[in-house]
Amino acid sequence: MSKGNIRQSLLFRTHPGFFRERIAPLFPQVDFRNLKPTDLIRILIQSLWLAVFRTHPQPPRPRVHIRLWRRRMKQWGRRLSRAIPASWRRRMTPIVIRKQMEEIARHDVWANRPMGLVTYLLTVAILLIAIITPFSLLSQLIFMLLLWFIALSVRRIPGNLATMILIVLSAIASGRYLWWRINYTLNWDDMLDLTLGFLLLGAELFAWLVLMLGYFQSARPLQRQPVKLPDDLSQWPSVDIFIPTYNEPLDVVRPTVHAALAMDWPSEKLNVYVLDDGKRPEFREFAEQAGARYMIRPDNSHAKAGNLNHALARTEGEFVAIFDCDHIPTRSFLQVNMGWFLVDPKLALMQTPHHFFSPDPFERNLGNFGVVPNENELFYGLVQDGNDLWNATFFCGSCAVLRRKPLEEIGGIAVETVTEDAHTALRMHRLGYNSAYLKIPQAAGLATESFSAHVGQRIRWARGMIQIFRLDNPLLGKGLSLPQRLCYGNAMLHFLSGVPRLIFLSAPLAFLLLHSYIIYAPALLILMYVAPHIIHASITNSRIQGKYRYSFWAEIYETALAWYIARPTTTALINPHKGSFNVTAKGGLVPEEHFDWSISKPFLVLVVLNLLGLVVGLWRLVDGPDHEVNTVLINLGWGSYNLMILGAALAVAVEARQVRHAHRVEFSMPAALLLPDERYLKAEVRDFSLGGMNIHCDERSDCYVGMPLKILLRAGIRSFAFPATVVRSRGGLLGVKFQELTAQQEAELVQCTFSRADIWTGWAAKRPLDRPLTSLKEVLAKGLSGYHRLFHFAFPRHAQPLIGQARGFLGYLATYLPRQPVPGP
Amino acid sequence: MSIKTDCQNGDLPRVSEDVLSLQQSTPGLEHYRELHQCEEIREIRHRWPLLDAEPVPPHGFLRLALPGVHHSNVVLVTGVAGGAGATTVVAGLAARMQHSGRKVAVVDLSPGQDLHLHLGNRAEAGERGGKSHAEKVAPVLIRHSDRPACQQLPAQWLADCLSALPRDALDWVFIDCPWYLESAFHQANALAGRMLVVATAEPGAVHQIGQVFGNLLSGESPGGADIHLLINKVNMAIPLQRDLHALLHDSPPARLAPAEIPHDSRVANSLAKRGTIGDFYPDCEAAHSFRILADWLNESRIGHLETGS
User: Fold this and answer.
1) Burial category of B113 from C-beta neighbours within 10 Å (exposed 0-12, middle 13-18, buried 19 and up)
2) ipTM score of the complex?
3) Is any Cβ of chain B less than 8 angstroms from the Cβ of A232?
4) Do A761 and B25 touch (CB under 8 A)?
């Protein structure tokens, strides 16, 4: 008998691999082949833990739970549906319900004016009753659960009527909340409570107003489509294209001019003007050589508006198309847009979306370019389209066509404010002219290059809009319809959101730090009212805006700007004549990742305050009176949420590296490579810029780095060859850089790429639908990453090893922790 | 340009692909006008005045298309000018067809009589009567013993040759015959159901296209051969070729074949290696073009060769 066998038979009667297969997996943190003295402690701890808790690796339970739960739900559903007659069941699919809803909406009853009026009045009456009836806690709970149930069952049904139902539900929930807030939750006995309470209530009323106006504005986007132009080319009107520039580099302006010249419009009716306020000779030389006209003026009064007005007085095209110097139009821009002008002689403005092919600071610094809709998309995807229904689309300064006659009637582009565009549109609307919006991206440009530049741009917009609000208030004065007034009013209100946002960010501190009851009500009751308000607003907004803005992202966008627009808007509200025009910097570089301390100061203050509030709150949770526990908990939750949002704002202040001179545009198009030995390879462009391309080619192995080649691209029936050099061959892609292109070749390259009619159409198609909870998780994760980065940059480089050591030590301590056994082989 | 401009565009899409894709995503743009492109075409015509020269009046070397039974599987390939690459196209198509398992005969009526060089090993195997499968389906090469340029082809020579082939044994017959060999071309034209006119995007060829199509199309009877223009050896890196290519697409003298063959040094390399491009570089774009052409022919084929009729 061998030694091993003896051991087996005497001690355990085990098979040879027993230890390796059964025992070792129970101690995943211990390496039994290389035992250390401290492993004894680990084994001890783990054994104790195993003795107390389960010893076998378990399959992930909760999922099974959920699956089981779902299956049961389905079974119940089936049982329930069997109880319903088959003829009814057939009627209950979303599509059928939608059809029925549409039938109701189309019913002749609505055409009958008195009948419609009665219905509206009835609806308003019911709404009012639903809002102001006081409920007990239980009835409020039941009522809100009912509303919630309706909302959940309606929100998947396509069609406009379902949206309207959601809006009404949200209006009821929010209305009830505010009614309750105004009537029952102000502590009139305590001055501090009352003051702070009024501040919060004011902010909430503002948010409510913006929410309701937002519903009004975006409930029913018009979704206008292009109109056919006459067959006879001689009936097509003449168009002047203005490209104002001031201090942008020539590289930014060149593609715009090339693309403008390549538009599909009769050449004798198309004039491209470069309006150079920088008065640079190289611009003149370039414009003349490219075939555009060059114009300067003696002074620079009134910045862009003055520049445009100067050109307006010296040209005579029937229409004027205006492009910021970085907005490269597609060749189809005019044919898409001009049809409506010929159909509607009162149409003065046609606006198209501003599309950006470079990431804006949010996208770049949060790393979500192309994944999450950017800040602009809500406005150009939904708000402007919604405005169009009410004939209230306004001019956005670029990518738009204006009719000369009305423009001259109002005395050219408005110069009184720093947002000349919206003011111009407002004046044309006052004269009874129409505006229109086509939601087809037909031009694209560069987003602002840094967060501070972005803030600067938004300060200008905010100040300008408030200036208009003061100087030429759309709510007053003549010529506008009520919906137009509301749409303009909402656009301006939107920029006043700075102060309310700051109030929301610091509201929990009132209770946590100052012990002030700003909402003077029991915690449970608050929850019962505020939760439906928030939930319904989220559901409804997710349905209306989901394609253009994911839920909760607005929090980040608005928080990041809140402090900076709060001051100028307040100033402009008091003194509208202060402030000047600043040009938004574009096309710049960020050589190294860094934290923008100066711009994040206000966030840091808020973070410190909120942290302090949390600490005090936790202390009060332990040490405070029992009846306050719920209130403290609610405020702690609110405070932590604020901290997360502030963290995301901090993350935006970490400027990611940006070293590309020309931004890459991801787009697939066929191409071919012509090698120096005259071999012809088929290829596909994956992304491009005017500096180079990434190309997929099956015969990539034939190309070495440094190889000169020619890239063949097509534009319509024409083909062009561009000399280039291979700069890298990696990951299935061939990176090429264009060699010195002649001016002619550069224009051709623009025609093959940026000028393509379909270049911006498929942009958002790949994005998934909005999922509020996922989105919330992501927003919170961005908040956490903000703190992580803050920590990283707060400690200068020589402190880095310290962090590393601390991490290492914590990691070492973690090896002592008991852990789940690994599943056996 | 001395070509017929009122002919239909045929296989050419009406608008460019980018406009097409915009139209698909956006209703209301069905009448898009590609004006900038039109202007450039006008400029190109202005830039190369030769192409706008008056067409040479027909000399009568091509009489009206002969009445005859046009077999849909007989393809006449003729070069617009010498060196356009008709022989290469015949060899490439034959090789491709053979590769996909079709039985092919090729008729070499070119003055150079060099088709067998293109077919290389393949033709020799065919002549030897090889044993393996690949060799069994090797193309049957038909040549006139004398150089056709020197001598009038006997009447009915081609029809007799084809009827001598076993009935139903052949899927495709490719005839390589230049249009200026009058008697041979007439015989081929009377039999072929399809004619591929091979042209290069070079000034001489483009000028000739006008002559050739002026003759071919004016004489086209309803039952005549189905004529397509195949553009060969396009080198877009050369501005003149690029312009001519755009012109040919803008106002094609005949319907365009679904693919064109790019200029690729590997086509010539393959000939030097005694084979076709598909043999040595099956993945390259030129081989791909032959594949597209062969598939196109196969799809459009209506019936089998009825020998003897």
Assistant:
1) middle
2) 0.82
3) no
4) yes
